[in-house]
């Protein structure tokens, strides 16, 4: 019998009115396959002006509004969460059907945190190759990214002070503090992440940008400077 545990799914959003209903309806259906009373969905809106919050409200347990910024929004969601396990999920990412069973395995493990493998939508072979490298790199380094559906025991998250209040690389930064606590619990059943970003800006351009930002972060450049680089590159690609 699966281990009973309580899960808080925290979804930071900004201008997701077109897709948020479908995302949350899918998540609701998944959680209803377990003990609904022990799980919750918290949407944290960063001040959207397209009605995202009102669209989300019927499909989740709670909507809160915070300052914009993914780290700030995720911390705000965690502050009101009641679950033993906090799962931080991007609005364009879907959990696998086996997610509750795999998270129940995590709940009885000694690990403090973990992540899923990832698969990108679309039939392009290149997307499968990109996902393979993302998953392989994550297993080798013990570093996860937000696209992989990171989950953390609430007690550990609170002890570490949550995500650093930085505009970029908050996922990589917290992994650096989580790794001394435990290696990540890796779930091979993949989350499905929308490839719209890769399609819009071009797969190779996006790969190069992500690796350039990661390399410069490891060299010590500030997240603020890297956020400016990211925004400038995205604007130039539009």
Automatic annotation (TrEMBL):
Xref: Pfam families: Glycos_transf_2
Entry GO terms, CC: plasma membrane
PANTHER family: GLYCOSYLTRANSFERASE, GLYCOSYLTRANSFERASE 2-LIKE DOMAIN-CONTAINING PROTEIN
Subcellular compartments: Cell membrane
Record key words, sorted: Cell membrane, Glycosyltransferase, Membrane, Transferase
SUPFAM superfamilies: Nucleotide-diphospho-sugar transferases (SSF53448)
Keyword Isomerase: no
UniProt-recorded name of the protein: Glycosyltransferase
Residues covered by the Glycosyltransferase 2-like domain: 8-159
Source species of the chain: Marinobacter confluentis
Superkingdom: Bacteria
Signal peptide per UniProt: none
Gene Ontology MF terms: glycosyltransferase activity
């Amino acid at each position: 019998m699966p281990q009973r545990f309580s899960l808080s799914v925290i979804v930071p959003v900004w201008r997701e009115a077109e897709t948020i209903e479908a995302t949350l309806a899918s998540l609701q259906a998944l959680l209803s396959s377990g003990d609904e009373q022990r799980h919750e969905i918290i949407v944290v809106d960063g001040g959207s002006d397209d009605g995202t919050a009102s669209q989300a409200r019927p499909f989740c347990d709670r909507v809160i509004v915070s300052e914009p910024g993914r780290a700030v929004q995720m911390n705000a969601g965690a502050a009101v969460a009641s679950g033993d396990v906090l799962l931080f999920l991007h609005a364009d990412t879907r959990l696998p059907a086996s997610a509750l069973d795999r998270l129940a395995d995590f709940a009885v493990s000694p690990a403090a945190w973990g992540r899923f493998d990832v698969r990108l939508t679309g039939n392009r072979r290149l997307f499968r190759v990109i996902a393979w490298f993302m998953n392989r790199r994550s297993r080798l380094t013990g570093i996860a990214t937000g696209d992989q559906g990171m989950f953390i025991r609430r007690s550990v998250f609170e002890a570490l002070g949550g995500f650093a209040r930085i505009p970029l690389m908050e996922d990589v930064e917290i992994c650096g503090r989580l790794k001394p606590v435990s290696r990540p619990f890796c779930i091979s059943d993949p989350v499905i992440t929308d490839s719209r970003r890769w399609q819009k800006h071009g797969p190779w351009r996006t790969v190069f940008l992500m690796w350039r930002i990661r390399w410069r972060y490891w060299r010590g450049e500030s997240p603020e400077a890297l956020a400016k680089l990211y925004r400038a590159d995205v604007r130039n690609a539009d």
